[in-house]
Amino acid sequence: MILLNLSKVYLFNRANILPGYRPDDFSTFDWTEWKFWEELDKLNIYGVGPDKTMIVGKSADNHISYVSNLIQAAHDHNIGVHPYTFKNDNLLFDYKFSAENEYEQLINLDVDEFFSDFPETLVRYLENKKCKEHQSEDDNSEDSARTLSLTLSLLSVILFYVQ
């Protein structure tokens, strides 16, 4: 089996964003200025996997404190965004204790795929979203295609995990 052509995702969090570089405040960090994008391009990186709190920040009182421009900056470099780790617990109050509300926000922010400890929650959310889209007279085929793409990506991750 040749593994040379595997798609690569660069995982990072606040502690290992880049050797020797740790911004103190991601709420004002401009991801378009991140110098590592060019290095990722050279490494043929398919996507980045940031800690999800680097996209949607969490305040001390467990509310959304900021939304970064990481997704747009990655997409400007043709790099997908695959944040981690989505769970059914420890949700921000703004999500009203619903993991589906968290998925909704990140999909609306144009996240490409998810790392989740509870993939069945995402599958259920996408199935419900798909049913609602079919019931709507204003069915937007682009949204349907995106939902299908997210579903297929998730299923490929589940199949890989099961094997």
UniProtKB/TrEMBL annotation:
Its EC number is 3.1.4.46. It comes from the Eukaryota. InterPro entries: PLC-like_Pdiesterase_TIM-brl (IPR017946). Signal peptide: none annotated. The keyword Zinc-finger does not apply. Keywords: Glycerol metabolism, Hydrolase. Belongs to the glycerophosphoryl diester phosphodiesterase family. This is glycerophosphodiester phosphodiesterase. It comes from Oikopleura dioica.
